[in-house]
Amino acid sequence: MLLIGALPQPITSAPLVVLVYLVLILMIAGALASVLLRSTLYAIGAFLATMVLVALLYLTIAPFLLFAVQLLVFTTISAALLIVLLRETTGIEASSIGPFSREWIIGAAVSAALLALLAVVLGATVWQVQVCCALSQSFGDTLTTTYIVGLAVLIVILAASALGCGLLLAAPTLPSPRGGGSTMSRSPSGGGSTTSRSPGGARR
Amino acid sequence: MNAGLNLVLAGSAALFAIGAFATVARRGAIVTLLGTQFMLAAGGIAFVAFARFGMGAAHATAGASMALFAGASAVAELAVGLAMAALIYRESRSFSVDADRG
User: Where along chain A do its domains lie?
Assistant: First the structure.
C-alpha cells in the first residue's frame, strides 16, 4: 500500500537521541554479557536488564502499551520462569551480605542516580513519545479488530505452552542408561551406575 | 545528530547476531534459550522501527501488534524450553545440551 504524504521524520531532539543511543549501546552490552558470562545467575540478570532496555527503546519509538506489556508482562514472566528453574535445579544460595552493608548502599546510590538521570531527561525533553501514547486506544482497537484471529491464535499458543510445560514437568524422570541424576536406585545388572554425578561435573 | 530507521535497525541486527551466536555456539540450555529470546526481541524491534520510521508508518499500530505477538510467542517458547531444560537437568545433573555428556 502506498504511503500518502512524507515519511515520518527521525528523532532530532538531542536528549532523546542521546537516550536512544545510550539504550541501544547498553542493550547490546547486556546481551553480550548475557551470552559470555559463565555464571548462570549473572547471565540471567544481564538478560533481564537487556529486556528492560528493550522496553525503554519501545518507550521512545512505539505505543506506550507495548512498553508496558514488554516491561510488566514479558520481562516479569521471563524472570519468574528463570528464577523458578534455578531454584528447582541448581538452587540459589542466600546472600551472605547484610541489607545495610557497603555494597548494598553503593548499589542503591547508583540506582538512584540512574533513576534521577532518567527523570531529568524525561522532564527536560519535549517527549515525542507522547504522540505515540495517543495511539494506545487505536492499538487496542487494532488488536481486537484487524488482528483478532492472530490474538486468538496467540491465546491458543500460550495455553498450549502452559499445558505442555505442566505435562513436561509432571512426567516422571526415566532412569538414564548413563547413570544420570535420577534418585532411583538401580540394580547393578541394570546397566547403569548407582552413583550420581556431581552438579558441575559435566559442565563446560 | 538524529536517531532514525538505520540506527534502530543496526541495533536490532546486532541483537539478532548475538542471539544467533548464543544459539549456535553455546552448549548450555539456558544460554541457548536466552539467545532465541534475543533473536525474537530483535525481530520485534525491527517491526516497531519500520512502523515508526519506515513505509509501515501508514499503519503505525501494525508493527507494535507484530512485536506484541512476537513477544508473547517468545514467552511461550521460553516456558516450554525451560521445562525441557529442567528435564535435561533431572536426567544428567547438567544444563549441557551436548549429546556427548556421558
Answer: 13-90+111-133, 136-164
Q: Look at residue B33 and tell me if it is in a domain.
A: yes
Query: What is the tens place of the pLDDT at every residue in A113-129?
Result: 877 777 776 666 655 54
Position B45 in a domain: yes
Q: What total number of domains does chain B contain?
A: 1
- Long-range contacts of the stretch A18-23 (C-beta < 8 A, 24+): A18/A121, A19/A56, A19/A60, A19/A121, A19/A125, A20/A57, A20/A60, A20/A61, A20/B3, A20/B7, A20/B8, A21/B3, A21/B7, A23/A53, A23/A56, A23/A57, A23/A60
pTM of the model: 0.71
Helices (H), B1-102: 5-25, 29-53, 60-92
Distance CA A178, CA A193 (A): 7
Segments forming the whole domain that contains residue B84: 5-92
Instruction: Tell me how far apart the alpha carbons of residues A72 and A59 are, in angstroms, rounded to a whole number.
Output: 13
> Which residues of A, range 28-47, sit inside 8 Å of B by Cβ?
28, 31-32, 34-35, 40, 43-44, 47
Q: Do the domain assignments include residue B68?
A: yes
In a domain, B40, yes or no: yes
Minimum-distance CB partner of B52 among A8, A77, A147: A8
CB of B101 less than 8 A from some CB of A: yes
Percentage of the residues of chain A whose pLDDT score is greater than 70:
65
In the 8-state DSSP scheme, what is residue A11?
Answer: B
pLDDT in tens, B39-55: 999 999 999 998 888 76
Indicate the burial class of A100 (C-beta count within 10 angstroms; 0-12, 13-18, 19 or more).
exposed
CB atoms under 10 Å from CB of A148, counted, come to 11
C-alpha B75/C-alpha A162 separation (Å) is 10
Question: Grid cell 551406575 — which residue?
Answer: A193
